[in-house]
Amino acid sequence: MGLNEEQKEFQKVAFDFAAQEMAPHMAEWDQKELFPVDAMRKAAQLGFGGVYVRTDVGGSGLSRLDTSVIFEALATGCTSTTAYISIHNMCVWMIDTFGNEEQRYKYCPPLCTMEKFASYCLTEPGSGSDAASLLTSAKQQGDHYILNGSKAFISGGGESDIYVVMCRTGGPGPKGISCIVVEKGTPGLSFGKKEKKVGWNSQPTCAVIFEDCAVPMANRIGDEGQGFIIAMKGLNGGRINVASCSLGAAHASVILTRDYLNVRKQFGEPLASNQYLQFKLADMATRLVASRLIIRSAAVALQEEREDAVALCSMAKLFATDECFAICNQALQMHGGYGYLKDYAVQQYVRDSRVHQILEGSNEVMRMLISRSLLQE
């Protein structure tokens, strides 16, 4: 799927930003666990804070395909930071798409500039893959909801200003779930300890806790009982986004490996002259392009709201995150002992891309969704 001239232009902008503003700091952000607020706000100045959000509230109004192209390019500079930017974008899109006009104009402009940051709150300690069984409650009291419960593994937790929370306003199951925006500083909102993670260290992850947290009913996005639908529609795009971040990690790893093979000598000649390694590199590049094509195909299907969009998004996330992690891992192997040193960036792409096979719906859940769509035909 070729890109038009406009897409090539913002792809170049994203690659340049990744090379100049992200890649030089990637290792430091990882090792010191820094949340790079200034760099992300610079990215937002280029329109990357609300890529597929409507322009009247400050978004860029681009397509899902455009978004994938941008996130792949940014992720070559720092996969972890780009993954957070992608989650932030998903939250802004949910408010823009399902919020009323007052909510859109209140929340979206400062989120698009990344003056404020957003987090997506679905997962709980007892409900990961089985998201519809979530227990966080929101009971109506006058013109407020009183929230009680906790969310787990929340990217941006403690740092974000806006929390898009899925909570139970009705009975059991998906139809009892609503979507409510909770702002940082609301009494009763607190955060657990910052988790120590294998990768994704440039974004904080922690529990988000609600203890008699009173939130105005005006903060509910959409109708009561619509929350699970909103959450799943957000995740369809989120799966393309995180798969695109895997593309960026694999893309960078292929380039690093190519360059390493050209300069590293063993047995009197560059590793690049070894046919076995040439074939390995060819396989990596082929799997990268195959992953890119399935992601872009899914992005177009989602943009067009086709019936097969959910299945294609699941296939793209499953295939690309598995394949791209394998590419990064093979790249590390081809760097030999140097690949295991933190002085070499390839190990960070391995660590940062591994979690993509787990979050936004684990790849086991992706297989379940795909098989379900096939069996229902």
Write the layout of secondary structure elements.
Layout: H1 5-22, H2 26-32, H3 37-45, H4 64-75, H5 79-98, H6 101-112, E1 118-121, E2 137-141, E3 144-155, E4 162-168, E5 177-183, E6 189-191, E7 205-216, E8 220-221, H7 227-263, E9 265-266, E10 269-270, H8 275-303, H9 309-334, H10 346-354, H11 363-376
Parallel strand pairs: 1-4
Antiparallel strand pairs: 2-3, 3-7, 4-5, 5-8, 6-7, 9-10
Helix pairs in contact: 1-4, 4-7, 4-8, 5-6, 5-7, 7-8, 7-9, 7-10, 8-9, 9-10, 9-11
Shape: globular
% residues in beta strands: 5-15%
What would CATH call the homologous superfamily of the largest domain? Butyryl-CoA Dehydrogenase, subunit A, domain 3
Instruction: Tell me the name of the CATH class of the largest domain.
Output: Mainly Alpha
- Helix tally equals 11
Radius of gyration: 21 Å
Topology pattern, helix = H, strand = E: HHHHHHEEEEEEEEHEEHHHH
**DSSP helix fraction:** 40-55%
* CATH architectural grouping of the largest domain: Up-down Bundle
Report low-confidence residues grouped into runs of 5 or more: none
Number of domains: 3
CATH topology of the largest domain: Butyryl-CoA Dehydrogenase, subunit A, domain 3
Main pleated-sheet profile: 4 strands, mixed
Strand order of the largest sheet: 1-4-5-8
What is the CA–CA distance across the termini?
28 Å
Number of strands: 10
Overall mean pLDDT score? 97
Backbone structural class: alpha+beta
Protein name: Isobutyryl-CoA dehydrogenase, mitochondrial
GO molecular function: flavin adenine dinucleotide binding; short-chain 2-methyl fatty acyl-CoA dehydrogenase activity
Cofactor: FAD
Enzyme class: oxidoreductase
